[in-house]
Amino acid sequence: MTNIEDWDSLSYEEKNRQLYLQQKELLATLLEHKAISKEQYQKSLHDLSEKMGYRNE
Fold first, then answer.
1. Alpha-carbon distance 27 to 32, whole Å?
2. Which sign, positive or negative, has the C-alpha torsion 38, 29, 55, 50?
3. Does the structure show a pLDDT above 90 at 6?
4. pLDDT confidence of residue 5
5. Is the dihedral of CA 26, 31, 35, 40 positive or negative?
6. CA-CA distances (angstroms) from residue 28 to 4, 10, 40, 45, 54?
7. Nearest CA to 16 among 7, 29, 25?
8. Which of 15, 38, 41, 44 could serve as 31's disulfide partner, Cβ 3.0–4.6 Å?
């Protein structure tokens, strides 16, 4: 989701969902490139999911 007009049309919940998915993807990229350990990935994803009200997906 890169278009500002698209972003502006999203509801608050949809924006939160998009932010969650972007952060989850970033964590996966860091893990893939071995910038973080699997344990760090799991803890960060758990903390992110809990903070934003999502279960680990």
1. 9
2. positive
3. no
4. 72
5. positive
6. 25, 25, 11, 9, 17
7. 7
8. 41
